[in-house]
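Example 344, ligand pyridoxal-5'-phosphate.
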Amino acid sequence: MGTGRLSIDLQAIVANWRALANLAQSDAAPVVKADAYGLGIGPVARALAQAGARKFFVAYAEEGFTLRRALGPGPEIMVLSGHMAGDARALAECRLTPMLNSVDQLTRHLESLPDHPFGVQLDTGMNRLGMEWSEWAAVAEIALSQNPVLLMSHLACADETDHPMNAYQLDLFHQMTDGLNVPRSLAATGGILLGSDYRFDLVRPGIGLYGGLPFDQAQPVVTLDIPVIQVRDLQEGEVAGYGNAWQAPRPSRLATVAAGYADGLLRSLSHRVNLWHGDVPCPAVGRVSMDLIIVDITDLSDDPESLRVIGPNQTVDQLADAAGTIGYEVLTSLGTRYARSHRE
Ligand SMILES: *Cc1c(COP(=O)(O)O)cnc(C)c1O
């Protein structure tokens, strides 16, 4: 049964992908790294492939291996970490396309897998992955002679529309790639929303597919319901949870539910989040523990069988706000104990 029921709306993911592709007016390759942001790479990628997606991004060759088994031979699978030591076999056998990030990776790739497709990631100021301009200048001729399938870069501040870094990176990307006659990609979800200048030939939406900000037009994708294990009554002044961190301000009825910080309901949510019974908010009380959360259900007329953590009354981003983090981290922290169901 698992600790809770995590329901994932595949049609909403497909609709979000179509909406972003439509906005971008370019090829939109879903980013399904980290198990499709925790939502299940197999079902998510199959639904997108069925809807027409032909290119996908993963972070690591290992994830590409999983994805190739899920999708079969057709779609192109691109690996953002490039060609790391030990990757050659997986890249070759699963026909994965690495985005080469450094001169070392380019050398490794051309030596171990000549004639195997690749792209190049360029660093335009984020200083995370990719070749800097001087490195690119030194190897561009060799790289271009092998027909790379893509030149890409990544924006550091795309979720801040007015940040001057966006225009700076756009300009540098133009200078590094104009006139080279290779398909280009700069935008993830945030970049797509910055405007047509940022969209180039291919966009790489991740979080927007899964219903998260900054794509505020996204259809919601996730609902999460947690079963109640036990219910009890407290007198005013009694305490609950680790450290006696909560004291009943009135006679109270408490429900203990079957999920905790090991299931992505971060400990920083303690005292800061509601679980929902229909439209009635029920505040979590005491500290979130590893497997359990205590909830004040005094205001409910009947004991609930389960309470909802993510749904129409509380989005992933609202939950993230309460925890002091971002929607990406909430989704990828959900863990493996929930019973997942993928609605077609
Ligand atoms: C994760 C990632 C993406 C997707 O980003 P979102 O903000 O989730 O849309 C795109 N490109 C690169 C290089 C990434 O690392």
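Summary: The chain has a mean pLDDT of 97.
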